[in-house]
Amino acid sequence: MHTGLYHALDFTVDGKSLDFLSIPFSVDRSPYYQVKVPVCRVRNGTGPRVLLMAGNHGDEYEGELLLGRLFRRLDPARIRGEVTILPAVNAPAVMAARRRSPLDEGNLNRAFPGDPAGSPTFRLAHFLEHELFPRHDVVFDIHSGGTSMAHLPCALIERQGTPDRLGRALELMRALGMPYGFVAENGATAPTSMAAAARAGVLGISGEFGGGGTVTPETMAYTARAIDNLLITVGLTDAPVLSDPAPVPDQMQLLQLDSHRQAIYALRRGWFEPAVDVGARVAAGDLAGWFHDLTRLDQQEEELRFQEAGIVISRRLHSDSEAGDCLIQVARPVEEAGILARAA
Ligand SMILES: [Zn+2]
């Protein structure tokens, strides 16, 4: 009763249901407290099985808001197959408007494969990887840059598994209709949801859909279109549910981060002023920004220069920075043939 994670979901029932994953965790305020993670199910017979999740990091809002709206709008009679929706998967982090859970400082996207006897975030990760993910064909985990970071709007997959599987992931990623597609290199044992999906035998798709701890009409529009495109592409629905115009996939520029030289880090306390924003195309040696020191007003601000060429994929939003903070990152544009050749 005091460990594990339990639920009363029946995966064979058609229709629409709203339930909870319950994780017992005794706290000062409430000896028999349970973390309640909302879980929505919509099912209509057999067909594609899709898991949609957001709130892996609590302060990334496009997915959280749109997956709630999707659950309210989805009509079971108009789908084929089943969809499980977790709009606030690390619920304590969402309620605290934080990246990590305040209960255990758990970062869910660094907690896989989890631990059934661990703290709440690790028990949740264990349940997702070992019990929930394997019941699906596709897992779509919706992220953004969070409170501290601006991010280029991009779909994301990890380079996992066989070339055939990678090819299917690339195809599904392109179908989202996002302007950029980021192919991450985290390895088979990575603590991320995408590596967890690969270990669970499920196709994992993710993306960074905004940032700054907020949403905009633009970020909501392309996230809505990406969710609709995914559901239509896998055959779960035949018309958009969240976006008004008929979705039309755009050309997608593929990007990779594969070297620490692509990032500029703070090496001491300072204040970061960017010279370029996300989306800028830069050459090696170009000015990335300036690092000011408000405690040494007689010192020139330091010029920061890119070591590698590419497209600026993320930058820190908080000016105030400490040693170890990533200030700005530049990704390398790549072609699909190059990615598939490396997987072979
Ligand atoms: Zn995230």
Number of helices, counting only DSSP H or I runs of 4 residues or more: 7
**Strand element count:** 18
Averaged pLDDT:
95
Which structural class should the secondary elements be placed in? alpha+beta
Q: How many domains in all? A: 2
State the share of residues found in helices, binned by percent.
Answer: 10-25%
Description:
Helix 4 packs antiparallel against helix 7. The chain has helices at 61-73, 91-95, 120-132, 163-175, 193-199, 217-233, 336-343, and strands at residues 15-24, 34-44, 49-54, 81-86, 138-143, 149-151, 154-158, 180-184, 203-208, 253-256, 263-265, 270-274, 281-282, 287-292, 302-305, 310-316, 320-321, 326-334. The strands form 2 sheets. Strands 1, 2, 3, 4, 5, 6, 7, 8, 9, 10, 11, 13, 16 and 18 form a 14-stranded mixed β-sheet that branches. The protein has a 4-stranded antiparallel β-sheet with strand order 15-14-12-17, with no helix packed on it. The chain has 344 residues and is an alpha+beta fold. It contains 7 helices and 18 strands. 48% of the residues are buried. The structure holds zinc ion (ZN). Residues 56-57, 60, 109, 143, 146 line the site of zinc ion.
Give the gist of this structure:
The chain is of the alpha+beta class. 22% of the residues lie in helices and 29% in strands. The structure holds zinc ion.
What does the secondary structure layout of this molecule look like, with pairings?
Blueprint: E1 15-24, E2 34-44, E3 49-54, H1 61-73, E4 81-86, H2 91-95, H3 120-132, E5 138-143, E6 149-151, E7 154-158, H4 163-175, E8 180-184, H5 193-199, E9 203-208, H6 217-233, E10 253-256, E11 263-265, E12 270-274, E13 281-282, E14 287-292, E15 302-305, E16 310-316, E17 320-321, E18 326-334, H7 336-343
Parallel strand pairs: 3-4, 3-5, 5-9, 7-8, 8-10
Antiparallel strand pairs: 1-2, 2-4, 6-16, 7-9, 10-18, 11-18, 12-14, 12-17, 13-16, 14-15, 16-18
Helix pairs in contact: 4-7
The structure holds zinc ion (ZN).
The site of zinc ion has 6 residues, from loops.
